[in-house]
Write a structure and sequence with these properties.
The structure holds two protein chains of two kinds.
Chain A lengths: L19 E10 L2 E11 L4 E5 L6 H8 L7 E6 L7 H4 L2 E2 L13 H9 L8 H7 L15 H13 L5 E5 L7 H16 L3 E5 L3 H7 L2 E6 L2 E6 L1 H8 L2 E7 L8 E7 L2 E6 L2 H10 L4 E8 L2 H14 L1
Parallel strand pairs in A: 3-7, 3-8, 5-6, 6-7
Antiparallel strand pairs in A: 1-2, 1-4, 8-9, 10-12, 10-13, 11-12
Helix pairs in contact in A: 8-10
Chain B lengths: L1 H14 L2 H17 L8 H31 L3 H7 L5 H30 L6 H28 L2 H18 L11 H7 L3 H14 L5 H29 L2
The chains are: A alpha/beta, B mainly alpha.
Chain lengths: 307, 243
């Protein structure tokens, strides 16, 4: 299924060249510091998710990786070259910002236009097998729904059979079915050896797709690693109960009150329970389960703010 | 082929906005019927008026389709996307110019038909060719001026600026009445407009007067000047948006 025409046939020979390498990138807009010395090394053949709260610098970072923006200082290398070089742009797939298209062009005309830039683009059949756009191909872009535009935007990033694809919030505002379609296309693409760098607001999306996670906050990298590594960084278990809120507890990496429950993230739930008992805390309805990425993520961000 | 695709989409985009493209194409013919015809008592006068209104056609397309179009495009997310596609910006620009040339040609063809129907025009083939060649030469400085408007004006500001310059240049350039009928003070300003020199070229072509190199050099100078201005505007805009 993945593909018969040899997508990525022209994959850069040296697989050990990083897909993305950012060294000490600094970028300000007026008095706002968007990036404050960002270092990133993203390997080929993975799906990398850049996570971070709003205004963390994710979109600015993507802008620098795609050559839309220039950094104030620091160096950037994409597949071993500069992002604005034509030889690199031929290997990179992107989506238009805000899914903005010329309103009075038909979907098929937009597809043909973008296709014409690349030496070995997908055929219509390949494209329509991955993205359900066939029924829309004679529609003008101005008449598409938000979800259909987003689908077209994501399809455009894959149309040139690139080695590396950047997706900024690929499924924001999509219904479940369209989101599943896009997820499947992304996973298929990785299966054929492609590399993806995506940002997302949905941590479940990162969990479903990403093999590597980078957490960015306030223009700097907070953590990176596999899903498991990120979870373990802050604690792999989540203990919750109704009762007293302790300020400190042996074994807890993060403690917070959420509605009527106290939530504790920890690497050692046994130790946490023992110290709860030792400290005579009131607790009812105790629950212990593995922490998910979302909890790990917010713990990381909270802890970095407290410092 | 990239160039063809950009040419095609650019043309389709224009055709599918008829309120805009029809007005641009037809305005010279409409004003010719209202104003030009009254100046056309006599075959040669009608010929001169036709030549001037052909310049008016390219002025309109250069300013409204090209200038205002560039100003609108530069803010669009699609344009920002096209910037990071593997294509040279000059290739895209060239395709847009070709699409505009198609519009100029259509506009002029309609104008010629209208002139045949409403006036007594007629000239030897040689004069036709020289007149049209003069109009063609004029496209370059006008397109460069359109680009300058496009890169220096905001999308909202471009339309009024283009309108103002369009009217002023058409009057001062001697499109609405023959330059020989201009009051002296107006004539002295007129010779500083590129439009006047294009009009002079077409008139000389029609009357069969020999062409001198002077108007060509002046128009070349204007083209270079406005291309430089446009390039500065382009860089300024890029620096502001993509720093």
């Amino acid at each position: 299924m993945v593909n018969s025409t040899g997508m990525n046939a022209n994959l850069t020979e040296a697989k050990d060249i990083n897909a993305v390498q950012l060294c000490n990138i600094v970028k300000s807009f007026g008095s706002t510091k968007a990036l404050r010395g960002l270092n990133l090394e993203l390997k080929q053949g993975e799906i990398h998710a850049l996570l971070g709260p709003n205004a963390a610098g994710k979109t600015t970072a993507i802008g620098i990786m795609t050559g839309i923006r220039k950094s104030d200082s620091g160096s950037v290398s994409i597949l071993g070259g500069y992002p604005w070089e034509k030889s690199i742009r031929l290997q990179v797939g992107l989506t238009p910002q805000e899914s903005g298209f010329p309103d009075n062009l038909r979907v098929s005309e937009i597809l043909d236009l973008v296709k014409s830039h690349f030496p070995e683009p997908m055929t219509d059949d390949e494209l329509f097998a991955r993205f359900p756009l066939e029924k829309l191909k004679n529609k003008q872009a101005g008449g598409l729904s938000g979800g259909q535009k987003r689908l077209l935007a994501v399809a455009l990033s894959f149309i040139g059979n690139p080695n590396l694809v950047f997706l900024d919030e690929p499924t924001t505002g999509l219904d479940v079915e369209s989101r599943q379609n896009i997820w499947k296309a992304i996973l298929d693409y990785r299966g054929s050896g492609g590399t993806v760098v995506l940002t997302t607001h949905y941590l479940e999306e990162a969990e479903a797709l990403a093999s590597r996670i980078v957490v960015i906050n306030e223009g700097k990298k907070l953590a990176d690693g596999s899903l498991e590594q990120i979870r373990d960084l802050v604690g792999s278990s989540r203990v919750s109960y109704r009762g007293d809120l302790p300020t400190m507890l042996d074994g807890a990496t993060h403690i917070k009150q959420q509605d009527d429950r106290v939530i504790i993230i920890t690497n050692d739930s046994d130790l946490v329970i023992r110290s709860m008992v030792r400290n005579d805390l009131e607790f009812q309805d105790l629950q212990i389960r593995p922490a998910n990425l979302e909890e790990a993520f917010f713990t990381l961000i909270d802890n970095s703010r407290q410092k | 082929m990239i160039l063809y695709q950009y040419f095609k989409t650019s043309l389709l985009g224009l055709i599918r906005t008829p309120s805009y493209s029809l007005v641009t194409i037809l305005v010279p013919s409409i004003i010719f019927v209202i104003v030009g015809v009254t100046f056309s008592d006599g075959r040669q006068e009608a010929n001169f008026a036709l030549g001037s209104f052909c310049v008016f056609s390219s002025l309109g397309v250069a300013f409204f389709q090209f200038g205002v179009g560039v100003a609108n495009d530069k803010e669009s997310p699609w344009e920002q996307y096209a910037r990071v596609l593997p294509v040279h910006p000059l290739s895209r620009l060239f395709a847009t110019i070709l699409a505009s040339l198609v519009f100029v040609s259509v506009s002029i063809c309609i104008l010629i038909v209208v002139a045949f129907l409403t006036t007594d025009i007629g000239m030897p083939a040689n004069s036709w060719l020289k007149m049209l060649f003069g109009v063609f030469v004029g496209v370059f400085p006008l397109a460069a001026m359109g680009l300058t408007i496009g890169y220096w004006c905001s999308p909202k500001g471009a339309l009024p600026v283009a309108n103002l310059l369009y009217i002023i240049l058409a009057f001062l350039g001697g499109i609405f009445f023959h330059p020989s009928l201009m009051p002296e003070f107006m004539n002295s300003i007129s010779i500083f407009t590129p439009v006047r020199h294009i009009v002079n070229l077409t008139q000389a072509g029609i009357s069969g007067d020999p062409w001198t190199t002077e108007p060509f050099l002046i128009l070349l100078a204007y083209t270079i000047l406005f291309l430089i201005l446009a390039a500065v505007g382009y860089r300024r805009d890029e620096a502001k948006k993509y720093r």
